[in-house]
Design brief:
The chain is an alpha+beta fold. The protein folds into three domains: about 100 residues, RNA polymerase, RBP11-like subunit (Gyrase A, domain 2, 2-Layer Sandwich), CATH 3.30.1360.10; about 120 residues, DNA-directed RNA polymerase, insert domain (RNA Polymerase Alpha Subunit, Chain A, domain 2, Beta Complex), CATH 2.170.120; about 60 residues, 5' to 3' exonuclease, C-terminal subdomain (DNA polymerase, domain 1, Orthogonal Bundle), CATH 1.10.150.20. The protein is built from seven helices and 14 strands. The strands form five sheets. The protein has a four-stranded antiparallel β-sheet. The protein has a four-stranded antiparallel β-sheet with strand order 5-9-3-11, covered by helices on one side. Strands 4-7 form a two-stranded antiparallel sheet. The relative contact order is 0.15.
């Protein structure tokens, strides 16, 4: 098996704390770079678990089209700002963050108070602007999940009328690009390939961890196929019918036909079912009259045999 190596050639952290990592993977057999790149990209973009704000409660507000006295932004703007927050929750349970602030104040993400299980990545992200003499009280719900989860209005909890649900984007990876470069020619004359992958995360996960988790998911997906053992089913012969188990004596054949069949090791109807009309004629001293007699006896109990071997 061809061994390859993975090199991270670049790592950058942007002002919004998003991270970009560039990886070189190779050398690979021809065609393997495309297979590897497509598989990793699909899992990176839609299969990794992440955290997101899923609901917001604002004191004195019960719908998203309201305004808050003394706050420059309306409720819809505040919800969009909360939705854009990048958070990393290490808990599988619902985490709740709170904020109580009195103006004048520029409310930012760092003002939110969460438990130690939740980390706010972009602490400088603005949330609202509160004027002097006014206050703002918020409650944010953070959950973990996979992919994109829209608000389900049908199953929304109507008892919590002031809890404003938000479409949640749990995807920690924002962008994945890959290109394929041909590298040196091997001793056998075949071209080797090198995969160049660019992974951009929202900062809640490093590109290195994203690549590792995507690879582990693919391993779990393919591992059962590596241990598949195909067991060939042996077809079971059908159980003989009651008619097939009838002994030869009960067919009431003539003595000549009976003796000829006995000499041919035919002892029951099931033995006769393996014969055709041509086979009966080939039995020693067994003529067409005896063959017709056997066929008539079998037809009386609902059994027929073919005329020739080819029609069997």
């Amino acid at each position: 098996m061809l061994q390859y190596q993975i090199d991270r050639v670049d790592h950058q952290v942007a002002d919004d704390r998003s991270q970009t990592g560039i990886f070189l993977i190779g050398p690979l057999e021809r065609g393997h770079a495309t297979t590897l790149g497509n598989s990793l990209r699909r899992v990176l973009m839609g299969g990794l678990e992440g955290s997101a704000v899923t609901a917001v409660r604002i004191s004195g507000v019960n719908h998203e089209y309201a305004t808050i006295p003394g706050v420059r932004e309306d409720v819809l703007d505040i919800l969009l700002n909360c939705k854009a927050l990048t958070v990393n929750s290490r808990s599988s349970e619902l985490e709740i963050g709170r904020l109580v602030i009195t103006g004048p104040a520029e409310v930012k993400a760092r003002d939110l108070q969460f438990s130690s299980q939740v980390q706010i990545v972009d602490v400088d992200r603005p949330i609202a602007t509160v004027q002097s003499g006014h206050s703002l009280e918020l409650e944010l719900h953070v959950e973990r999940g996979v992919g994109y989860r829209p608000v389900d209005r049908k199953n929304e909890d109507t008892s919590a009328i002031d809890l404003l649900q938000i479409d949640a984007v749990f995807m920690p990876v924002n962008k994945v690009n890959f290109t394929i470069d041909e590298t040196a020619v091997s001793e056998g004359g075949s071209n080797r390939e090198r995969l160049r992958m660019e992974v951009v995360t929202d900062g809640s996960m490093t590109p290195d961890d994203a690549i590792a988790e995507a690879a582990n998911q693919l391993i779990e997906l393919f591992q059962p196929l590596a241990t598949v053992t195909m067991v060939e089913e042996i077809p079971q012969e059908p159980e003989p019918t009651a008619e097939a188990q009838i002994p030869l004596e009960e067919l009431n054949l003539s003595v000549r036909a009976y003796n000829c069949l006995k000499r041919a090791q035919v002892n029951s109807v099931s033995d006769l079912m393996g014969f055709s009309y041509e086979d009966l004629l080939e039995i020693k001293n067994f003529g067409s009259k005896s063959a017709d007699e056997v066929i008539e006896a079998l037809e009386r109990i609902g059994i027929s045999i073919p005329q020739s071997r080819t029609s069997a």
